[in-house]
Fold each of these.
Amino acid sequence: MKPIKDPRYILSSGTQIREEDFGLLFYTMKGPRLYFLSSGQMLNSSFFQGELTLDQWIRLKKEEGSVPEERKGGIKKSLNQLKDKGVIIER
Amino acid sequence: MSAEMARKGLRAPVNVTWEITLRCNLRCVHCLSNAGPVSKEELTTSECRDLVDQLTVLKVFQVNIGGGEPFIREDFLDLLRYSHEKGLVTCVSTNGMLVDNDLARELSSLKMLYLQVSLDGATAEVNDQIRGKGTYKKILNAMDCLARHRVPFSINTVLTRTNYPQLDTLREMAKEYGAELRVSRFRPSGRGKESKDYLGPDKDQLEAFADWLNEYDLVRTGDSFFCLTSENRRIKGLDMCGAAKMTCCISPNGKVYPCAFLQESPFLVGSVREKALKDLWDNSLVFSRYRNLDVKSCLSCFRFETCRGGCPAMAYHTYHDISLPDPECLVNIQRDLKEFGGSEIRD
């Protein structure tokens, strides 16, 4: 399947999410398994409502104050891994 | 990495073990909870629903429900449905005695349910010695009903000295039912204290079992063979004891403990009848001590990152000290077997 250029993300069916001090914790019924996303305060669960791309989200958060841009690459990679594992879906 | 994050502490448990009743229609000789008659002052239906509400607010993902036999409670199906409505995934351990076609049909409509059926031997001779006369046949009947109604389930087997030689057959049986085999650890708590000497696996078996687990990737070990499993296998799942860090246990009368195998007074955190679970999770000294537990004598061991000292409950029930290493540590077992020429060694 052709990769989506600037994706938005939503949770897969059977996935739940929780905010933690280190970032986000995902639980999927497939397994069941847990996945830890070390995103700090950069993302929260509303990001996975699929309304904004990562770039748009970061821009918004920067306007609000405190998002370090340099973490974007790492977060992008982690989101890809979560997508490959079927925890989240691109759209 | 994930273990490190969990060790720093989570805002709430990821899953909770809930012994919803102590009442049981069997008297298994290894029962960790010493289940049988109803316990005093078990949580009422309304208190159970309140607890489910608390778990939902805390965003606990999964509740592992056992006992006792959960299906003995007349309100149990309603509580299950209520939990699912609230978004909680449930994993129910049953002895299968009450599972018939009617119940299986009911369960087939529940989509947020994992079911574990306990079976402790691949033959009636071995299983019934542990779970009681006639139970093997009834468990198979329960599994037939579940399979007929397409209810996904796993077979849960507590590893014992007598069923160890039957593990391959149990694995085959599970496959035939389209189920997973999950092997749990024998722990000397509850009635397991009395049966450990004749039922606990011996050191040769434990060493061979570690190899067996490596060979059969798909066999699950839901609870903590940390002391035995290899690095390769560990990366597939939780790589440390999750008690007080990711999970805790709630007893039939609402008392909270770090885990189901440590339901003893030194580990009593409090009661959900008196305090909110969140308050207990954040402020309990028992949890705090448990989270900061270091098994110092293991720090220099080459396997430390793999097992972190193993299961504290095993250490407690063996030495009355949770800061000591797991008594079934693979390194110690292998050293003992080498030293004593591979013959069976009993403590």
Note: DSSP finds 15 helices and nine strands in chain B.
Amino acid sequence: MIRVQAVPEAATAIRTSGLSKRYRRVTALNDATITVPEGRISALIGPNGAGKTTLLRLLAGLTRPTGGEMTVNGGTPRQDPAFLAGIGFLAQEIPLYRRLSAEDHIRAGAHLNPCWDGESVRERLAALRIPLDCAVGTLSGGQRAQVALALVLAKRPRLLLLDEPVAALDPLARRNFLAILADAVAAGGLTVVLSSHLVADAERVCDHIIMLAVSRVRLYGDIDTVLAEHQILVGPRKDTSAIERDHRVIQVTRTPRQVTMLVRRCGPVIDPAFQASDVSLEELVLAYMGQDPPPTLARLTSIGDDE
Amino acid sequence: MTWLVWRLHRTQLYIAAALLAALTVLLLVTGLQMASKYHSALAACAASHGCANLASTLFLGSHAVGFGVIMTLGVPALFGLFWGAPLVASELETATSQFAWMQSVTRKRWLAVTAGWMLLAAAAWGGAVSGLVTWWSGPDNALQLDQFKPGRFDIMGIVPVGYALFAMALGLCAGALARRTLPALAVTLAGFIVVRSVVTLWLRPHYISAVTVTYNLFSGYTPAGSYWQLAQGIRNPAGQLVPAPNGAAIDGIPLGYLPSACAAAGKGGPPTASCRQALAAFHGFITYQPASRYWAFQGIEFGIFAALAALLIAVTAVVLLRRDV
């Protein structure tokens, strides 16, 4: 007897469908359909201008979509205190009032949020030896980023949207911050989406990935699943149409003697001529992004190509 | 929200308070001097029954302070430029809007509280300056009867409060649309000057239909109190307007327009009886707004600018709530 048990779908923090944002002439985001389950740390990866900021701003409700739908924390982004309380958003510009001190920002947060942990900010900044009473404008870029990150965490949001949060931090501060994020997520009730163009950051703490290139979502999902779905196939240079029919070929590199393919598998690869190996996140990201790869890479991989 | 508004703008308020205090001291000191000078002059002329030409013989105060008082015409524009225009524009320009608007406070509430307090501050400061100027100008108004005239009307009573509200709302709206401080400043200044000029020159004379009085040239006519004269002139018996004299004239009529009976008088001789009779057919007229309408006009003009301010705030709200920020 087979017992069918309804598997409860994991709660989703973000679900978008066909989400688009067109400005007068440019399309910043085109037909984006993604899902981010609750409790993930998702890396939003893509080259500059891929639409990462647009996607984050749409999710935060700062920008209105021109097409498609989205559900964030169970609702549509809107101007409503309850919705806003559930979202923490940190823009790339690290927006802080330059003439106000960190302490002023902490007090402002206490006045503006129903659930505010100002003490955590004071502790973190004290540990980082960042003065609380100096105008924020006099702090270094990295210190400002630390203040802004501490403030956005103090809001205790359910969903944290961070636009290039670690760009201004030194490697050690970057590592510490990512560790803090991981702890906060582990404590429960928090989902994070952080944009970056560095795969190394994503590999360190993220368990989910959204890959954007040229305003389109190329790939999204749990990193483990995504990696398991992809394989590098190396085999003799021969007809590859069978593989191309059965699987989705992301990238092909041909040399006179052999062919290397990165494929998204649909079922097992049964051609014994090909040797399958696992793919690293970095390789995967580069393959998806570099569907026209950088010129140096292109030159190297086409050595001896007789076509 | 109120705390953040206070924290962000308290420096501006301190500066405005200091400037207001300085103006208060200046006007209080000179105003008291003027009042005592006026009252002693009035007592002196009453004793000698010679108060009729007091207005032309007595000069109150100093030119410098008087000029400063006229300059309070520009005070409302300062609220728009220094408080209104940067309010939204600098938030957008420095991206701090993404801090303010991503707390658990809706943009609607942010705008309501911010604009509410800043409009209140503008109204309070505008009202304080206007109150001081109105009090300071009291003796001068009693003497010159000019409080209804453009330039004076605009710095006294309740209209400066309306201008201040309008300038603040204009700055806010320009900032929300331009999204940058400098263009917002330019738009605010230009918009304020244009609207104020249009209202003063073309709308204000028509709030209530003006009164026209036709009078005999020999007796003359002066409306009572601080009236606002819109037009004055002389019409010939055919009802045509006689141009203002630009040279020799009799009773304000240029020689060329005199009736033939006055030909001799035109050459320098005394007006004959027939000339006087012919002149009696000419009439003077004056078109004016009576002094009794002063507060009605103040109320109407205040209402116009308060309504414009409300409209601009509504536009700002639509821009901030409906457009991408």
Note: The longest helix of chain B spans residues 2-47.
